[in-house]
Amino acid sequence: MVKCKNLKKIYGKKSVVKNLSFCVNDGEVFALLGSNGAGKTTTIKMILGLTKKDGGEIELNKDIKIGYSPDTPYFPPFLSGREVLFYYAEIQKISREESRAEITKLLKTVGLEDDKTKVKNYSKGMLQRLAFAQALLGNPELLILDEPTAGLDVMGRIEIIDLIGSLKKAGKTIVLNSHILSDIEQVCDRGIIIGKGSVLGTWDKNEEHYGKSLQDIFIEKVGGMDE
Amino acid sequence: MMIAVTALKEKIRKKVLYIVSILGGLILALFGTGTGSISIDGTPVTDYKILAPILLAILNVISCVMAVVLSLDTIPNEYERKTSHLVLIRNVSQTKYHAALTIANIMAGLLAELILFAVFLLFMISQHQGGDIWRLVPAFFISAICVVLICVMTSWLSIFLPRFFAGTLSVIIVLAGVFYNMLELLNSIVGGFAGKLLKGILYIVPDLHGIQQQAGSVLTDGTIEVHLLLKGLLWIYIFAMLLGLFKRKEV
Question: Per the CB < 8 Å rule, is A88 touching B86?
């Protein structure tokens, strides 16, 4: 579904992404793993067309719908969850009748049925769930989730991981950007480990890693680079 | 339209709109109430026909500064808190997005101007000019040209300039615009490099004073110079075009 070949991004004199290549297949949950500042978010922004790439290619069918959940979601605080979704549905040009039914369903999916509460009174977990819901508007084929569990408490993380799990079962293609390895191991099929903008290694849930956990592989690759 | 409405709702909920409007209203009330608040050559001005254009000019300066304050943050805020990401990935172009946010700025600016005009209305009533209240409507629309112009200009500058520079430059242009007649006078006196510099400034600064004078003329039965209003509208068109041309590299 997404094919990135030799992606490059330079900010000033600093090369943030260097010759990054990977491929995301239909229906899989693909992980972009890496420490803070590894270039994961920049890669996502290039896929979404939010930032221009300085080299390389991104193969992505222009007709597919993409849903995106940002790392630090911000929504107008005076709106309720339902109103926020109506706002994005309107921008997305989804008809009123269509969006009304879809929003009710989405709010139920993410567990935000109480639509009287304003966003300003939302917890971080509720905000992340609302970000999820807006990403799912219009039933996108590809979902890009940037650090969906960052800053959440244990229960919040469990809720989000469960949600990703249910989306996976529903057959969605998901690109998950995270540095929380246990989350990745739980829901992802494959992934790449990024460090200083380059691919340091790959990980596949179905492959034999000679008894090594994802954490072992990550430390081996990222730790090795830092030395 | 949804983007503009939501951005406007957010502005309406912020205190800055009301604080600045109330402060502006207080300043107007200070000049307008009682007799002798404004003096010319030591003589207190009490004649409505002299006092009204002066107060309207003060109202215009406050409205323009408010337009800068209200327009300065809207676009940068959207990018800083990354609200822009969720809009731009939904096939909304930067041009449309900036235009929608600018419309919100204009609506907020006009709302602030309306609050100030309400104070002016009280002044008119206190001056026993109740029969001329209808004149406030065309005066409002003429003054609105200045407000819209400043909103569009500040919105455009805020796309590519850091907030501080965009704000400072906007205020400088507002001040140069409201004192346009003085700059013209200075230009006719000063020669050499300074004269050329002034001439250059007069080219790139909109004549806010000229527009405001027409609003004053509406109130006092004076002659209206339509070409000055058309020039104001032309400036709005130019800034709107620039707004469409400029895009952020990184969103």
Answer: yes
B124-152 residue pLDDT tens: 887 777 788 888 999 999 999 999 999 99
Selected residue with higher pLDDT from B205 and B47: B205
ipTM exceeding 0.90, yes/no:
no
Once rounded to an integer, what is the mean pLDDT over residues B158-163?
Answer: 93
A96 to chain B: which residues are within 8 Å by CB?
Answer: none
Q: Is the CB of B85 less than 8 angstroms away from the CB of A79?
A: no
The whole-number pLDDT of residue B32 equals: 65
* B100 lies within 8 A of chain A by CB: no
Q: The CATH number of A2-226 is which of 3.60.20.10, 2.40.50.1020, 3.40.50.1100, 3.40.50.300?
A: 3.40.50.300
CB contact under 8 A, B9 and A76: yes
Where do the structural domains in chain A lie, given as residue ranges? 2-226
B86-124 residue pLDDT tens: 999 998 999 999 999 999 999 999 998 998 888 888 888
A92 has a chain B CB within 8 A of its CB? yes
pTM of the entire structure?
0.86
Residues on chain A touching B6 (C-beta within 8 angstroms): 76, 79, 87
Average pLDDT score over residue span A122-127:
86
All residues at 6 or more sequence positions from A91 whose CB lies less than 8 Å from its CB, including other chains: B2, B3, B87, B90, B92
**According to the model, what pLDDT value does residue B192 have?**
84
